[in-house]
Amino acid sequence: MRAHDGIRSGGAHVPALRRAVAILDHISASCDAPTLSGLARALGLPKSTAHGLVQAMEELGLLVRAADGTLRTGPHPLRWAGDFLARTDLVSVFRQSIAEARRFERFTVTMTVLDGGEVVYIACSDANRPLDVAFRIGMRLPAPFTATGKALLAARPDGELDALFGLGFPAPLTRYSVASLSDLRRELVETRQRGFSIDDGQIREGLFCLGATVGDHTGQAVAALALSLTRSEATPDTIATLGGALVEAAADLSCRLGGG
To answer: Does the structure show a pLDDT above 60 at 86?
Structure first.
Protein backbone atom coordinates (compact mmCIF):
# COMPACT_ATOMS: atom_id res chain seq x y z
CA MET A 1 0.00 0.00 0.00
CA ARG A 2 1.38 3.40 -0.95
CA ALA A 3 1.61 6.08 1.70
CA HIS A 4 -1.36 8.12 0.47
CA ASP A 5 -3.79 5.19 0.34
CA GLY A 6 -4.75 5.56 3.97
CA ILE A 7 -4.48 9.28 4.66
CA ARG A 8 -8.23 9.96 4.39
CA SER A 9 -9.10 7.37 7.02
CA GLY A 10 -7.28 9.19 9.82
CA GLY A 11 -6.02 5.92 11.29
CA ALA A 12 -2.43 7.11 11.56
CA HIS A 13 -0.74 8.12 14.78
CA VAL A 14 1.21 10.82 12.92
CA PRO A 15 -1.13 12.00 10.15
CA ALA A 16 0.97 15.06 9.24
CA LEU A 17 3.99 12.87 8.54
CA ARG A 18 1.93 10.44 6.47
CA ARG A 19 0.44 13.32 4.51
CA ALA A 20 3.88 14.80 3.87
CA VAL A 21 5.11 11.45 2.52
CA ALA A 22 1.96 11.15 0.40
CA ILE A 23 2.66 14.62 -1.04
CA LEU A 24 6.24 13.65 -1.93
CA ASP A 25 5.05 10.36 -3.46
CA HIS A 26 2.42 12.11 -5.56
CA ILE A 27 4.71 14.87 -6.84
CA SER A 28 7.59 12.51 -7.66
CA ALA A 29 5.25 10.16 -9.56
CA SER A 30 3.45 12.92 -11.52
CA CYS A 31 4.39 13.50 -15.14
CA ASP A 32 3.35 17.15 -14.83
CA ALA A 33 4.26 19.19 -11.76
CA PRO A 34 1.01 19.82 -9.82
CA THR A 35 -0.28 23.05 -8.34
CA LEU A 36 -1.27 23.31 -4.69
CA SER A 37 -4.99 23.05 -5.49
CA GLY A 38 -4.39 20.11 -7.84
CA LEU A 39 -2.36 18.38 -5.16
CA ALA A 40 -5.12 18.89 -2.58
CA ARG A 41 -7.73 17.47 -4.97
CA ALA A 42 -5.60 14.46 -5.89
CA LEU A 43 -4.96 13.52 -2.26
CA GLY A 44 -8.38 14.45 -0.92
CA LEU A 45 -6.96 17.00 1.50
CA PRO A 46 -8.53 20.30 2.61
CA LYS A 47 -6.75 23.09 0.77
CA SER A 48 -5.83 24.78 4.08
CA THR A 49 -4.19 21.55 5.30
CA ALA A 50 -2.30 21.10 2.04
CA HIS A 51 -1.17 24.74 2.14
CA GLY A 52 0.26 24.40 5.66
CA LEU A 53 2.06 21.17 4.85
CA VAL A 54 3.49 22.47 1.58
CA GLN A 55 4.70 25.67 3.20
CA ALA A 56 6.55 23.74 5.91
CA MET A 57 7.98 21.33 3.35
CA GLU A 58 9.26 24.25 1.27
CA GLU A 59 11.01 25.69 4.32
CA LEU A 60 12.69 22.33 4.93
CA GLY A 61 13.84 21.96 1.32
CA LEU A 62 11.54 19.01 0.71
CA LEU A 63 9.61 20.87 -1.99
CA VAL A 64 10.34 23.70 -4.41
CA ARG A 65 7.67 25.98 -5.84
CA ALA A 66 8.30 27.20 -9.39
CA ALA A 67 7.45 30.69 -10.65
CA ASP A 68 4.24 29.36 -12.21
CA GLY A 69 3.11 27.96 -8.85
CA THR A 70 3.74 24.30 -9.64
CA LEU A 71 5.47 22.09 -7.09
CA ARG A 72 8.52 19.89 -7.49
CA THR A 73 10.59 17.71 -5.21
CA GLY A 74 13.25 19.75 -3.42
CA PRO A 75 16.94 19.00 -2.83
CA HIS A 76 16.68 17.68 0.73
CA PRO A 77 15.43 14.16 -0.17
CA LEU A 78 18.59 13.69 -2.26
CA ARG A 79 20.60 13.57 0.97
CA TRP A 80 18.49 10.64 2.17
CA ALA A 81 18.67 8.95 -1.23
CA GLY A 82 22.44 9.35 -1.34
CA ASP A 83 22.82 7.89 2.13
CA PHE A 84 20.55 4.97 1.26
CA LEU A 85 22.45 4.20 -1.93
CA ALA A 86 25.83 4.57 -0.21
CA ARG A 87 24.80 2.01 2.41
CA THR A 88 23.15 -0.42 0.01
CA ASP A 89 25.31 -3.43 -0.78
CA LEU A 90 23.31 -4.03 -3.94
CA VAL A 91 24.46 -0.76 -5.48
CA SER A 92 28.11 -1.04 -4.48
CA VAL A 93 28.26 -4.64 -5.68
CA PHE A 94 26.60 -3.62 -8.96
CA ARG A 95 29.16 -0.88 -9.56
CA GLN A 96 32.09 -3.14 -8.82
CA SER A 97 30.80 -6.05 -10.88
CA ILE A 98 29.80 -4.01 -13.93
CA ALA A 99 33.10 -2.12 -13.86
CA GLU A 100 34.89 -5.45 -14.10
CA ALA A 101 32.58 -6.81 -16.83
CA ARG A 102 34.16 -5.25 -19.90
CA ARG A 103 31.81 -7.20 -22.17
CA PHE A 104 28.93 -4.84 -21.32
CA GLU A 105 30.68 -1.56 -22.19
CA ARG A 106 28.62 -1.15 -25.36
CA PHE A 107 25.32 -1.54 -23.52
CA THR A 108 23.37 0.24 -20.82
CA VAL A 109 22.94 -1.97 -17.75
CA THR A 110 20.48 -1.09 -14.99
CA MET A 111 19.44 -2.56 -11.65
CA THR A 112 15.98 -2.33 -10.12
CA VAL A 113 14.11 -3.59 -7.09
CA LEU A 114 10.43 -4.49 -6.94
CA ASP A 115 8.09 -2.20 -5.00
CA GLY A 116 4.54 -3.48 -5.24
CA GLY A 117 3.58 -3.51 -8.90
CA GLU A 118 6.43 -1.24 -9.94
CA VAL A 119 10.19 -1.45 -10.31
CA VAL A 120 12.44 1.27 -8.90
CA TYR A 121 15.76 1.99 -10.62
CA ILE A 122 18.60 2.02 -8.07
CA ALA A 123 21.71 1.79 -10.28
CA CYS A 124 22.70 2.39 -13.89
CA SER A 125 25.83 1.95 -16.00
CA ASP A 126 25.41 3.89 -19.24
CA ALA A 127 26.67 2.57 -22.56
CA ASN A 128 29.60 4.24 -24.31
CA ARG A 129 27.07 5.06 -27.01
CA PRO A 130 23.82 6.75 -25.99
CA LEU A 131 20.37 5.16 -26.20
CA ASP A 132 17.25 7.14 -26.98
CA VAL A 133 16.09 6.76 -23.38
CA ALA A 134 17.42 7.87 -20.00
CA PHE A 135 17.18 5.63 -16.93
CA ARG A 136 17.21 7.84 -13.83
CA ILE A 137 17.95 6.64 -10.31
CA GLY A 138 14.64 6.59 -8.45
CA MET A 139 12.59 6.27 -11.65
CA ARG A 140 9.59 3.96 -11.35
CA LEU A 141 7.95 1.94 -14.12
CA PRO A 142 5.19 -0.69 -14.15
CA ALA A 143 6.84 -4.05 -13.47
CA PRO A 144 4.85 -6.01 -16.11
CA PHE A 145 6.41 -4.00 -18.96
CA THR A 146 10.08 -3.96 -17.94
CA ALA A 147 12.67 -6.69 -18.37
CA THR A 148 13.68 -6.48 -14.70
CA GLY A 149 10.06 -6.47 -13.57
CA LYS A 150 9.24 -9.55 -15.63
CA ALA A 151 12.29 -11.35 -14.24
CA LEU A 152 11.38 -10.48 -10.64
CA LEU A 153 7.72 -11.38 -11.10
CA ALA A 154 8.70 -14.70 -12.68
CA ALA A 155 10.63 -15.49 -9.49
CA ARG A 156 7.58 -14.89 -7.28
CA PRO A 157 4.76 -17.33 -6.51
CA ASP A 158 2.05 -17.09 -9.15
CA GLY A 159 -0.56 -16.15 -6.54
CA GLU A 160 1.22 -12.86 -5.86
CA LEU A 161 0.24 -11.65 -9.33
CA ASP A 162 -3.43 -11.61 -8.33
CA ALA A 163 -2.61 -9.58 -5.23
CA LEU A 164 -0.63 -7.07 -7.29
CA PHE A 165 -2.73 -6.78 -10.44
CA GLY A 166 -6.02 -8.58 -9.82
CA LEU A 167 -7.90 -5.33 -9.22
CA GLY A 168 -6.31 -3.42 -12.05
CA PHE A 169 -3.59 -3.77 -14.67
CA PRO A 170 -1.31 -0.82 -15.53
CA ALA A 171 -2.08 1.26 -18.59
CA PRO A 172 0.21 0.42 -21.54
CA LEU A 173 3.27 2.54 -22.20
CA THR A 174 3.49 1.54 -25.87
CA ARG A 175 1.40 -0.47 -28.34
CA TYR A 176 3.62 -3.47 -27.51
CA SER A 177 3.09 -3.39 -23.73
CA VAL A 178 1.63 -6.63 -22.37
CA ALA A 179 -2.11 -6.01 -22.24
CA SER A 180 -3.50 -8.18 -19.45
CA LEU A 181 -2.70 -10.34 -16.45
CA SER A 182 -3.32 -13.52 -18.45
CA ASP A 183 -0.88 -12.36 -21.16
CA LEU A 184 1.66 -11.50 -18.47
CA ARG A 185 1.34 -14.98 -16.99
CA ARG A 186 2.16 -16.48 -20.39
CA GLU A 187 5.23 -14.24 -20.69
CA LEU A 188 6.42 -15.27 -17.24
CA VAL A 189 6.18 -18.96 -18.17
CA GLU A 190 8.38 -18.22 -21.19
CA THR A 191 10.78 -16.25 -18.98
CA ARG A 192 11.22 -19.19 -16.60
CA GLN A 193 11.79 -21.57 -19.50
CA ARG A 194 14.27 -19.26 -21.23
CA GLY A 195 16.17 -18.30 -18.09
CA PHE A 196 15.97 -14.55 -18.70
CA SER A 197 13.22 -12.06 -19.51
CA ILE A 198 12.61 -9.95 -22.60
CA ASP A 199 11.06 -6.52 -23.02
CA ASP A 200 10.61 -5.94 -26.74
CA GLY A 201 9.46 -2.33 -27.06
CA GLN A 202 7.12 -2.50 -24.06
CA ILE A 203 8.51 0.56 -22.26
CA ARG A 204 9.88 2.35 -25.34
CA GLU A 205 9.37 1.40 -28.96
CA GLY A 206 12.66 0.51 -30.61
CA LEU A 207 14.25 -0.44 -27.28
CA PHE A 208 15.01 -4.10 -26.52
CA CYS A 209 15.92 -5.19 -22.96
CA LEU A 210 16.94 -8.46 -21.35
CA GLY A 211 16.52 -9.15 -17.62
CA ALA A 212 17.86 -11.55 -14.99
CA THR A 213 17.38 -11.74 -11.22
CA VAL A 214 19.97 -11.22 -8.49
CA GLY A 215 19.61 -13.33 -5.33
CA ASP A 216 20.78 -12.74 -1.77
CA HIS A 217 22.30 -15.19 0.71
CA THR A 218 18.91 -16.87 1.15
CA GLY A 219 18.48 -17.41 -2.58
CA GLN A 220 15.58 -14.96 -2.76
CA ALA A 221 15.48 -12.64 -5.77
CA VAL A 222 16.09 -9.19 -4.30
CA ALA A 223 16.88 -7.24 -7.47
CA ALA A 224 17.27 -7.67 -11.20
CA LEU A 225 19.65 -6.56 -13.92
CA ALA A 226 18.61 -5.37 -17.35
CA LEU A 227 20.74 -4.94 -20.44
CA SER A 228 19.41 -2.54 -23.08
CA LEU A 229 20.10 -2.39 -26.80
CA THR A 230 18.30 -1.20 -29.90
CA ARG A 231 15.71 -3.39 -31.58
CA SER A 232 17.80 -3.54 -34.76
CA GLU A 233 20.67 -5.11 -32.80
CA ALA A 234 18.48 -7.81 -31.26
CA THR A 235 19.09 -10.71 -33.62
CA PRO A 236 18.32 -14.21 -32.31
CA ASP A 237 22.04 -14.98 -31.89
CA THR A 238 22.68 -11.68 -30.09
CA ILE A 239 19.71 -12.25 -27.77
CA ALA A 240 20.94 -15.73 -26.85
CA THR A 241 24.53 -14.59 -26.32
CA LEU A 242 23.72 -11.48 -24.30
CA GLY A 243 20.98 -13.25 -22.37
CA GLY A 244 23.42 -15.91 -21.26
CA ALA A 245 26.05 -13.31 -20.38
CA LEU A 246 23.52 -11.34 -18.34
CA VAL A 247 22.46 -14.44 -16.40
CA GLU A 248 26.14 -15.06 -15.63
CA ALA A 249 26.58 -11.44 -14.48
CA ALA A 250 23.51 -11.70 -12.25
CA ALA A 251 24.85 -14.95 -10.78
CA ASP A 252 28.17 -13.21 -10.08
CA LEU A 253 26.35 -10.44 -8.21
CA SER A 254 24.40 -13.05 -6.28
CA CYS A 255 27.67 -14.73 -5.21
CA ARG A 256 29.06 -11.38 -4.06
CA LEU A 257 25.94 -10.95 -1.93
CA GLY A 258 26.48 -14.35 -0.33
CA GLY A 259 24.26 -16.37 -2.63
CA GLY A 260 25.09 -19.77 -4.01
So the answer is: no
